[in-house]
Design a protein that fits this description.
Layout (H helix, E strand, L loop, with lengths): L3 H33 L2 E2 L12 E2 L3 H16 L3 H23 L3 H17 L6 E3 L12 E3 L2 H22 L5 H19 L1 H4 L2 H21 L8 H18 L7 H10 L1 H16 L12 H7 L3 H24 L3 H19 L8 H6 L2 H58 L1
């Protein structure tokens, strides 16, 4: 088996390849989008951008990461299967970008791709036996039957694919968050790589992160291009599948928890969105303006600061996953609580309506009005204070001038008296 130095050189090589290829090919994707009219127009209030922007940038991510994935694919056959599914998922997203297909058709295509990947050998065959149920193997894993394993695998792949897609609401949010998640999983795979053979998966995750990093200069606010559904679905799929391929699942507790912790923010956002829409008696597949980034924008943080805040929370969860992999459970628990606290702060407004249901279903447009009114009041008070301070300064200057005049008169009078005495 190759040594650590071999894998380190491959990691650096793959990172450079994927970053450079994505950076170079993204401008071509912008030209193609403009040529064929693949443009995202701000046609509804959910969209944050104010002008039409090309949405074919996922091509750069796809080509960049695929160029890097060629290297680990030669080390692990399942990565080749993942690449095939990634090609199909990217193609499905591109079709949606061009023709705007119905959500149900897109969902069906995702299920078919996940089913194909399962049939080709990428599957979840067990979960950690936390409840000590009968039927566990020698590693305390609860073995899954073919039907149950298929359902869980498909749900995992389709769920994470759509969770990352839902994050693609602000400039640079999905690409940067995916890069952080991929690098976190890659580091966990690297830590245990030589012991359990997860180095090829580590390299593959680095390729995905590199594609995102090479794309980010064109996507960070103000964005020159969007990744579109092609890029978002591809990234979500690759993260989901590579986390299933990883031999970390052999480590029972670690394998079951680490991917979920690393992907906790998009999972939380997706589940919260489904709950919000269900409570409002809307379709869970309908679009709305209640995601984490919408709450941050409503609070007045702006695109860049909102994205950086979510980067921070995703990074914290990545560190939690790393600590769990090293069995530092207490440290991980306190960091997890910090991340959860920040998520609650984002979701719950300053003056929440009474009742959990009202808090969950509160429209961010209402929050925007509240925060805007609060901002106007703050501006009024600030300007009033400035006027009062300016008036006080003028009064102080006038008093100083009067005192100076009085002193000058006294000096003049004193000098006159001295002259008379002489």
């Amino acid at each position: 088996m190759p040594g650590v130095n071999y894998f380190l050189s491959r990691i650096i090589e793959v990172m450079l390849i994927s970053v450079v290829v994505a950076f170079v090919t993204t401008p071509f994707s912008i030209r193609i989008a403009n040529r064929f009219g693949i443009i995202d127009k701000p046609k509804d209030e959910r969209r944050v951008h104010k002008k039409p922007i090309p949405r074919f940038g996922g091509m750069g991510i796809f080509i960049g990461s695929m160029a890097g994935l060629i290297i680990p694919a030669g080390l692990n056959h399942k990565i080749e299967v993942a690449m095939l599914g990634g090609l199909l998922m990217y193609g499905l997203g591109v079709i949606d970008d061009i023709f705007d297909i119905k959500p149900l058709i897109k969902f069906g295509g995702q299920v078919l791709i996940a089913s194909l990947v399962y049939a080709l050998g990428i599957r979840i065959t067990f979960i950690s036996n936390f409840l000590e149920l009968p039927g566990a193997d020698s590693h305390a894993n609860l073995l899954l039957g073919t039907g149950v394993g298929y359902i869980i695998t498909v749900l995992w792949i389709v769920g994470i694919t759509n969770a990352v897609n839902l994050m693609d609401g602000l400039d640079g949010l999905a690409a940067g968050s995916t890069a952080i998640m991929a690098l976190s999983l890659a580091y966990v795979a690297y830590i245990h790589g030589m012991r359990i053979g997860s180095m090829p998966v580590c390299i593959a995750l680095v390729a995905v992160a590199g594609g995102c990093i090479g794309f980010l200069p064109y996507n960070f606010s103000p964005a020159k291009t969007f990744m579109g559904d092609g890029g978002a679905l591809y990234l979500g799929y690759m993260i989901a599948v590579l986390s299933v391929i990883s031999p970390l699942k052999q480590a029972t507790f670690v394998g079951a928890i680490i991917p979920m912790l690393t992907l906790a923010v998009p999972i939380f956002d997706t589940l919260f969105a489904m709950l919000r829409r269900a409570l409002k008696h809307e379709s869970i597949m309908s679009a709305d303006k209640g995601h984490l980034h919408h709450h941050l924008m409503a609070a007045g943080f702006g695109q860049r600061r909102s994205v950086l805040i979510i980067y921070g929370i995703v990074g914290i969860m990545g560190i939690v996953a790393v600590l769990i992999s090293r069995e530092l459970y207490k440290d991980a628990f306190f960091l997890f609580l910090i991340a959860l606290l920040y998520l609650c702060i984002i979701i719950v407004p300053k003056r929440p309506k009474k009742g959990i249901k009202r808090i969950i279903t509160q429209d961010t447009s209402e929050l925007e009005k509240e925060y805007f009114a609060e901002y106007l009041n703050y501006e009024r008070e600030r300007r009033k204070a400035l006027r009062e301070a300016a008036k006080a300064a003028v009064d102080a200057e006038e008093q100083e001038a009067e005192k100076a005049e009085e002193k000058a008169e006294e000096n003049e009078k004193r000098s006159g008296d001295e002259t008379q005495q002489q």
